[in-house]
Amino acid sequence: MAEIVRMPKLSDTMTDGTVSRWLKKVGDKVKSGEILAEIDSDKATMEFESFYDGVLLYIGIPDKKSAPVNAILAIIGNAGEDVAKILETEKNSTPVKKEEPKPAAKKEEPKKEVVVAIKTDTAAVHQHAALPLQGGEGGGSSRIKASPLAKKLAKDQNLRISLIGGSGDGGRVIKKDIENFLHFGNGKSGAVMKESYTEESVSQMRKTIAKRLSESKFTSPHFYLTMEVSAEEMVKMRSTINEVSSTKLSYNDLIIKATAAALREHPKVNASWLGDSSTGSEGPVIRYNNHIHIGVAVAVEEGLLVPVIKFADGKTLSQIASEVKGFAQKAKEKKLQPKDWEGNTFTISNLGMYGIEEFTAIINPPDACILAVGGIKEVPVVKEGKVVPGVIMKMTLSCDHRVVDGALGSDFLQTLKTLLENPVLFLGASSI
Description:
The chain has ten helices and 20 strands. By secondary structure, it is an alpha+beta fold. It has three domains: 3-88, CATH 2.40.50.100; 116-184, E3-binding domain (Dihydrolipoamide Transferase); 204-431, Chloramphenicol acetyltransferase-like domain (Chloramphenicol Acetyltransferase, 2-Layer Sandwich), CATH 3.30.559.10. The chain has a six-stranded mixed sheet. A four-stranded antiparallel sheet has the order 1-8-6-3, with no helix packed on it. The chain has a four-stranded antiparallel sheet with strand order 5-4-2-7, with no helix packed on it. Helix 6 packs across helix 10 (406-421). The longest helix is centred in the middle third of the chain and has 16 residues, at 204-219.
């Protein structure tokens, strides 16, 4: 008997999936446990196994195409079985949506092609976008000083002649100016003096990022607390540890460990706002987590992933460093699994390695707070009435005001500042 295989829900936030590629084709024999296809969820590319033995009779979602969760992905059965009846039954069982009136067709605009600029030390070669000429350009404008031949060349090349400097009498554009522009860009910098753009379909990951962070920003009442930290002792501590440890630490590893220690002292920051529908209670509930799972934002080509360091307060620096490196590699290779990114109770986003001094971050649900960490910077500071060299770092705590008030957030930051300025307070021999 033929079995319907549906688009799986590969994460708690997944609503649509994209078939990256099929590893089987119609007519192939399939065994339970064999990989049918690779599917892009909102967070990773995952291998999808067959649950059935038989023959692949039908593929419902081709390569590179998307479909909602539970859509027909494939049909597996005995060779020769007719899938038309199954598809007809499925179609009849699907509620028919009332069609909305279609808007009036818009007048088709001219297509715009990609601009390509290959820049060298002396010139730039351009493939100009096929844009309509501006009113009065190229052919018969009395407002533009240009020779007839220059106007014809500009029209043939679809150039905006008004953007081209003229070398003739009174700034008149001549043939040579057009030729120079085509060969050297604007004759000075090689800039492309044409409007153009490219458009790309939004990936499942980017769709989910947009949805979740929009909901967070407009649902959770954010407020922000910024504090400056002296990073001198942290810099010294990292240097000392890296001289003797086989696992090289980053500053972020130290920040994760210190944050976990600060959360242990301020458990009401390690919390989540739960709405009525989530709890089944008569009203909203705040969940205070006894465990500390710290999400660490990792940038990948398609967006941002947040793998989770679980029980961070009970792990050594070496363990934290090893996990963060492993997660970063798996994220880039799209090999993170749901267990890797689920369960966060607090999140850290660090842009210091990109030269960012200070920023604010949007809270990562279901957390009540996220810590944005800037870069470490050498600056003059005042100590005992004297201006001396110093090392500082800025951090900003974004708080959900429904859960964390200003005083609570400030107390947490003050504790974190004290720990980072005195690493010995959270680092013992067993912590490394």
